[in-house]
Amino acid sequence: MKFNSIKRSLSFLSVGLALLTLNTGCEDFLAEEDPSNLTPESFYTIPDHAEAALASVYADMRFYGNGSGIFSSNWQLLEATTGTSTTETAQNSDLNNLYGLIYDGRTEHVINWWNGLYKVIAQANLVLDRVPAISPMDEAQKRKILGEARFLRAWAYFYAVRLWGNIPLITAPQTSSSEDFRPSPAPQEQVYDLIVEDLLAAESAGLPWMDHSGRVSAAAVKSQLAKVYLTMAGFPLNKGAQYYTLAANKSLEVIEYANANPGSINLYPNYSDLRNENNGNRLEHLFMIQYNVIVAGNPMGNMFPNFKPVTFQGPGGTGSTVPTIAFYESYEDGDRRAVNQEGFFYTSYFTNGSGEPFDLGAPYIFKHFNQAALGRFGVPGSRANNLNVPLIRFAEVLLIYAEAQNEVGGPNAMAHASLKRIRDRAELETPSLGEFTPASFREAVWKERWHELCYEQITWFDMLRLRKVYNELTDGFDNFVGHINLSSNQPLRNMHLLMPYPLPEMQNNPNLAPQNPDYP
């Protein structure tokens, strides 16, 4: 159901209450408070209100794909900086600055991410504050809603703390009269403590292992916990072996459940299954942002080639996120992920989506290309691009376990098997366990993360936590500081380890000062 119907129930409820006033006498209407004037105090009174409020938190996650000026989307903040993509159009100055590594607190993408994440946090805080008092309400339903809200708050804070470091930590609804209306940044470790606390609460909320409607599941919670622990083990907190162990153990829970229930959690056999809209929230897709054209269609259109007729819309597309040739060519020979129209790229397509084949002249990103909506040879597209945006895939969980386990005890049989499953699907040979050292296994896993999880807005965060960057030309890893992004031929610097605080936010909240290092 893509969890959109509950969102609409809030507006329907408001209309229904307004209509009820027409049946009252004029005198009563003037004497009584308008029941259609919903407030947090009057709204959170029945279980349906709790469901509708939670739906609004999910809906607010879609800021991720909203626009950031001409030919650009918010998600490009996490791609342009990696060096694995470039732009064919260069029409958006803010996006150009991201590619050139000269962005600052005025960059629209930075501002939009801050506002989007803190809106999710604010909405989740409202649910967590108001829902506990709703009565009567089934306790299992209440516990589940609160667990989902805590997951979503943790999701937003996890992005925010990785992007900006020390950030305001807001855990209750705010108004202009709130004592902490202009909060100072909290230390990163304190933010991570809340993230872990929220995720552990969500883990005990009685969620199903998988939820095909797109709501948070136990698999999503455990996988997110594993991601958080893996990040905490690395930079900037450097918590080391204890947190690598936590990441390994938590990801192993998901893997063991998947091994016992392969029809519930597994890798899809073909890469085309990953971009099949009918597979959303199933099997490999453990958590996704939900899209449906009735509300909002898939937001990855800036990956289309510039002005080439690859869809039913004819010549169009912005080409503002396209792979660098160097990254495309860094895939091993025979890797299915680099095969035209089979894996993550395409170098030819069909005129207007379904007509005669033509050569694109360069590789483009096929990972989010919904052929049912956009067209395939001889079959026109439906034009309704309902493809979700993946946030957590089972493939990532396998790689989390492989990396974390190697860091605490070297590669074991399960870690090797996890890496091998990723490479087997790509039809690549994997050296035997005995051929690896901890160091060589570490880099093998990192390479798979770059090549398997590319263009899913994950790579930038790998660069931050590892302080390493994949070098496509040497097939090795450089230190973060000094690495040359081949998309712009500009080096990464210390300042790029954090995003700048948005300038409008600093103007509204003087307590946010000082700005992150080296930004104006």
Report on the structure:
Mean pLDDT is 93; it is low at 1-35. α4 (47-60) runs antiparallel to α7 (108-130). This protein is mainly α. The chain is globular and about 60 Å long. It has a two-stranded antiparallel ribbon. It has a two-stranded antiparallel ribbon with strand order 2-6. It has three domains: 5-220, Serine Threonine Protein Phosphatase 5, Tetratricopeptide repeat (Alpha Horseshoe); 301-387, no CATH class; 393-497, Alpha Horseshoe (Serine Threonine Protein Phosphatase 5, Tetratricopeptide repeat). Helix content is 42%, strand content 8%. The chain is built from 18 helices and ten strands. A hairpin with a 6-residue loop joins β4 and β5.
